[in-house]
Amino acid sequence: MSRRLILDGYNIINLWSGLKVWKDESLDLARKRLIEMMSDYQAYSGDEVTIVFDGAKIEGVKEEEEVLGVKVIFAKPPLSADSLIERLAYKDIAPSSLKVVTSDIALRNFVLGLGISWSSPRDLEKEVLLTLDKMRKEHMCSKKHLEKKTPYLS
Questions:
Q1: Phi, psi dihedral angles at 74 (to 5 degrees)
Q2: In sequence order, what DSSP letters do the residues of 75-112 get, joined into one string?
Q3: Cys-Cys with 74: which of 12, 42, 56, 126 at CB 3.0–4.6 Å?
Q4: How far apart are CA 38 and CA 89, in angstroms?
Q5: 26-54 pLDDT, tens per residue?
Q6: Phi, psi dihedral angles at 70 (to 5 degrees)
Q7: HSE on the CB side for 146, CA within 13 Å?
Q8: pLDDT per residue as tens digits for the range 8-23
């Protein structure tokens, strides 16, 4: 049975070393890189990925959409990404297959209290990097991603 991951998007962008580089240039670019990486990860692992960000009022961004096979949700103010993740976790009908990825202590404690598994962004980063490296070695990663020479794939 594959897992379903809910990621605290900006939390991850601020903690993953390779994404911090992109964030310094453009937050939009960092979001796109995270989505691309998680799309490749999802394709290889079979895990279903949802990324939740704060701020549905970003110009040109839909509140919820699928991007490269990854579900991307922007929390509509006044709801924060953390509050939306709490709602998604609370309403989940199969919590045993769900994992929430965040470094936020209150959110971590909430999901653990529901019996849902949790992972730190750093642990997921290691897992994703290993997976992307396997993909690269097996030539499953698209040539487009390899040519970009992102910090994760160079």
A1: -105, 120
A2: EPTTS-HHHHHHHHHHH-S-GGGEEEE---HHHHHHHH
A3: 56
A4: 20
A5: 999 999 999 999 999 999 999 999 999 99
A6: -100, 135
A7: 11
A8: 999 999 999 889 888 8
